[in-house]
Structure formats: C-alpha cells, structure tokens
Amino acid sequence: MVLLTLPWLLLLPLLLTGTLSYRHDTWFHLMRIYEIRQAMLHQALPTLGSWFTFGQAGQLIQGLYPSQTLLPLVAITNWLAPVQQVYCIFGLILCAIAASNYLVFKASHLTTNQALLAALTVTYSIPLINLLVYGQLPLALVFIFMPPIFWSLYQLQTNTPHPATATVLGLNIGLTLLTHLPSAFILILLVVLIAGLDLISHRHRFLSFVQAGCWALGIGLPTLVTILVASSQTLAVAKVAQRSFFQWGQLFEEHWHHLGIGPYFGYTPLTLLALTYLALTLWRHDNWRPLKIASLTLFFIYGSNLTLQPLIELVQFPQRFYLYSAQLAIFICLVRLCQQPLGKGVSTIFYIVLASVTLFSAAKTVFHVHQQLQAQTTWQAQPGYHRRLTKITNQTYQQPAFINMRTYRDYLPIEQAPYVKAGKKAFFASEYARDVNQAHSVRPSHFSGNDLHLDKTQPTDFASPVTVNPPKRQHSVPNGIDLWVHLPKSGHYDLPIWQYHYLSYQVFDNGQPRISRVSKQGRLQLKLQAGDHHLQIRLLLPTWLLAAYLTSATSLALLGLYLLCQKRPPYKSKNKAG
Q: Is-annotated flag, keyword Transmembrane (predicted)?
C-alpha cells in the first residue's frame, strides 16, 4: 500500500498548483504525450507522423521515438485535463517502478520489510528526479524493466535458475525496445557482456541468452524495423555536446562536475557507495562476479572521459547512460546486504537508513520544484521558450504558438541534411524547418534559401520566421492534416508538410486524388491551379510496420501464455491406480 500511495502524496502539492514546469527535456515529451492524447480523443491511435504537435507538419518524431509503452498510460489518464494527465502519468510510472522493484527484491529472498525499503530506495533515488526535474520520461519508464533484467541475469549465474528466467529477460528487453532505443541498446550490451562471461566460465547457459534474444526481437520488432527502414532516409538526433581535450587527471571529471546538481549526470552518495562496493569485492569468485564486471565495464564506458570523447561524436549526451551501471550496482548492493552475516535486524536498519535518506531527498526535490512553480509566471503572460522563467497551465495547450514554438532536426527528411545546423544550434533545426513547422509557409517550388527571413524584432528568445502565404485554415487528424489554401497563380508548390520517400501518402485536392512528390527540401510538393484549394493529406500505415506490430503482439501473447503455464500446478488425476 505504501508503494502505491507515496507517489501521489509526493505529487499532490504540485498537482494542486494546476501548473507544470517544462524545463530540460520536459516540453519535448509533453508534446509526445499530447500527440497520443489528441489521436485517442479522435478514437484512433497515433501514426508515424506528428500531426498535432511539433509544427503539425508530419515530422516523424512520434513514429521514430518508441511510444508503445506510453500508449496505455495515456489511455488510462485521457479523461483528465492535460496538466493533470501528465502528473498522473508520472504517478503511475513511479508506482510501476516501485512495484517492479518490490517484486524483484522479494524474489531475491529479501523479507517483506526489506524489499519494501529497498524498492523505496531505488524508486526515489533517480527516477523521481528524472521525471520532475529533467523530464526524461523514456528513461523513467525503463526503470520499470531494469529490475527484472538484473534479476534474470543473476538467475542465469546460479546452478538452478528459475524456469522462466530467459522469458522474463526477453520480455523486458523487448519492452525496453518499445520504450527507449538507446536504453535498449545499452541493456543489450549488458546482456552481451554477461553472455560473453558465461562462455568464458563454461556455465553453458548460452542457449538461454539466445532464447531471451528471440523473445526480445519478436516483441521489439516494430522499433527495430522502423529504425532500419528510416535510418538512411532521415536525419539522426542532433549531437549537441562538444568534444574536449582529454587529460588523465580528468578521467571522471564529467560526472564530478555535475556532483550536487542531481543524479541525472552526476554521482550521488548512493551510486558512489554501490560502485565502490563492487570494486572492492570484485575479487570474490561468486555468482555476482559477472554482474559486477559488467556494471564496472559499463561505468567505465559511460562514466569516464576516456570513452566519452569518441561517444560524444555518436550519441547525444552519452554521460547519462552511466545510470544503467549505477542501477545495477545499487541492485547488487541491496540484495547482497541481506546476505551478509550481520543479522536480520542489523541489515534492516541499513535498509531503513538508506530509504529514509532517499525519501528525504525526494521530498526536497518536490519542495524545490513547488517553489519554482510558485515563482514562475504562466507561459501565456510571456510567450516563447522561456523554460526557466515560465510554467504552463491547461490553457497553455490551447495556444498554437505553444505546440509550434520549437523545431528539431530529429528525423527530418534526408533532403534537409544540407540545411540543418550542428551543435547546440541544431535544437532549432534550420530556417527551412522553421518555415515549415512554425511559419507554415506555402511556397512556389524551387525557391531560394535567400527567400527565408527571420523577424528579429520579436521580443522572444529566438527570432520568428516570416510567414509567406500560410494556409487560411488547417485541421489535424490522427493520420494527417487538412489545409485550406489560396494560390495567386498556377504552378508547383511546396506545402508546409514533410514527405518521406519510404512512406505512402494519399492527397486529395477539393476531393480529387492527386499525386505528390518529395521536393528538394523534403516537403510535400503538388502541382496546383490558381485559386482556393481544400487539401487533404493522409499518411498511410506501411504494410511492413503492420506486420511488425502483428509479430510483436503475437510474441507478447505467446510469452504471456508460456508464463501462465509455468505458474500452473501440474495436473493430478483423481483416479487411484488399481
């Protein structure tokens, strides 16, 4: 009961303000939630394109950021207003993380009280801050799946692993693939490390890893297929970190620099304690040794400047991924604590101390966020991306400028490659992207980049694009958009819609079907006559994605049936022999 009520008690002061912070990554993920919300309010599921958010231009942010595990959370809470819905989703995630940890700690032979305290320690040490301070919704969701993954990996090191170990491992890796792609690849790397150590130590559990991989592949197929098909025809996520000169004296400087800011990028006493324990006990040849080696290996990869320098060229903010190493280290410490010859009472005292310190820190975090909300003005009073100065309300969502106020290079058509910016400026994509997503300009095809202008007189943090012949009206639907435009003369026009070569589109002009093509900027291009036009643009769900969804659903159904059969007692006949 404590695990399920505590999240709501912590979130209640924030919920009662009726406002929400959009600092760090929060705005980005708020738009993902809002996209799903609007699609469901139209009695549909969201498609690959973002039609209600991110400029309402069909950019594939919604489709290429895995959202499948977010769908049920939005569906459950869609009767609430937008701000209250977000807080409710946060609460449900915290409840799920706490329950997942509790069940795993119970399965690891902790007492009920110890499992409860350990679950509180894990849930409120990092995930709460990920949600409330940094807005890292996908990372927080992955914390639900990490405990079963860690438990499965340990079970495979024992002499008599649980019969469902490989299935549980595959299920949770697959669900991670449907949640957050970088997390999935890092956890897969963890599994590969353990499997390699399994081969070296001749434990002969390699087939279990293969079985888990098959389950994960089947469940996570929609994400894998989508990324595989789209990777060569879309732009990747912007890399904004700067590479710096490496010095041996600054091997772990990146995380020490953030110490005290929070556990998103920096060390905390709990993570330092756990990692130190692993390093000091690595010499012990027990079932935990492979997991300790894997945790310290991941820590060195994502926690030291030696490997961060080349990773920065490939991944956005690779520093954050040391969290997986830290969480594994914390898991090992919390399980091993009850196995030490200290006595049950002494061990429980340690759990109480850890949980108390963690909950005190969580309360301070909530208090700090509440103070910020009290001090900030609403977005409507100061429009623009002033995320440190303003907060949002339910009325904020009704402002078109709010859902269109940022553009990203993430997953734009490959034709945008010559125009997008690099480094931190990549957050604002290019003048071309802003002309589509923010200005919604309808331009004659083959226009010059010199025709794009910014209005730098606007009192905002970034200049606004100058609009050219925007639609008189537009209306989004879950799989597309309707535009009402007036054209002064006949010719080829680039609409404020992104089009991708590998996807199929249906276009109707005043009820008549038209064939579109991809312009040299990646826009949807049509040949149109002068006058008024009602354009209906629909993005079709590709057959390959439907097949992937069917495979994923079938895999989940078969896996659920398998786990159900594992729990059923064997049938015994009532007829006596003879």
A: yes
For the stretch 107-124, pLDDT in tens is: 998 989 999 999 999 999
Give the closest residue to 452 by CA, choosing from 467, 462, 438: 467
pLDDT digits (tens, 9 = 90+) for 412-454: 999 999 888 766 666 667 889 999 999 999 999 989 888 888 8
In this structure, are 63 and 110 located in the same domain? yes
Asked if the structure places residue 105 within a domain, the reply is yes
107 CB burial (10 A radius; 0-12, 13-18, 19+): middle
pLDDT tens for residues 128-140? 888 888 888 998 9
Q: Pull the structure tokens for residue 318.
A: 């690779």
CA distance 447 to 436: 13
* The predicted structure's pLDDT at residue 23: 85
Between CA 164 and CA 172, with CA 169 as vertex, the angle to 5 degrees is: 120
Show Cβ contacts of residue 232 under 8 Å, excluding neighbours closer than 6 positions: 414
- Looking only at the bridges linking them, the beta strands covering 377-378 and 390-391 are parallel
Same domain for 401 and 531, yes or no, is: no
Domain count of the chain? 2
Beta strands at 473-477 and 480-487: parallel, antiparallel or unpaired = antiparallel
User: Rounded distance, CA 520 to CA 494, Å?
Assistant: 10
CATH of residue 488: 2.60.40
Q: Are 34 and 400 in contact (CB under 8 A)?
A: no
Mark whether 505 and 408 lie in a shared domain.
Answer: no
DSSP assignment string, 434-461? HHHHTS---EESS--GGG--EETTSSSS
Q: Which residues contact 181 (CB under 8 A, 6 or more apart)?
A: 65, 66, 223, 227
Task: Tell whether 406 and 468 lie within a shared domain.
Answer: no
Query: Within 10 Å of residue 207's Cβ, how many Cβ atoms?
Result: 9
Measured distance CA(429)–CA(443) in Å, rounded: 19
Q: How far apart are CA 276 and CA 542, in angstroms?
A: 50
Does residue 96 sit in the same domain as residue 40?
yes
The range of the structural domain enclosing residue 533 comes to 453-544
Model's pTM, two decimal places?
Answer: 0.90
515 & 384 share domain = no
User: What is the C-alpha separation between 490 and 495, in angstroms, rounded?
Assistant: 14
What does the alpha-carbon distance between residue 207 and residue 225 come to, in Å, rounded to a whole number?
Answer: 25
Task: Find, among 151, 162, 166, 172, the residue nearest to 106 by Cα.
Answer: 151
Q: Do 138 and 21 belong to one domain?
A: yes
Q: CA triplet 237, 238, 240: central angle to 5 degrees?
A: 140
459 and 409 in a single domain? The answer is no
**Rounded Cα gap, residues 442 and 432, in angstroms:** 12
Taking every pair of C-alpha atoms in the chain, what is the biggest distance, in angstroms? 98
Q: Is residue 180 included in any domain, yes or no?
A: no
pLDDT digits (tens, 9 = 90+) for 170-195: 999 999 999 999 899 989 989 999 99
**Structure confidence at residue 500 as a pLDDT band (50, 70, 90):** very high
At residue 45 the predicted structure's pLDDT band, cuts being 50, 70 and 90, is confident
Quick check: helix, strand or coil at residue 546?
Answer: helix
Distances (CA, A) of 175 to 143, 185, 370, 461: 11, 12, 33, 39
Question: For residue 213, is it within any domain?
Answer: no
> Coil, helix or strand for 250?
helix
Is there a contact between 523 and 497 (Cβ–Cβ < 8 Å)?
Answer: yes
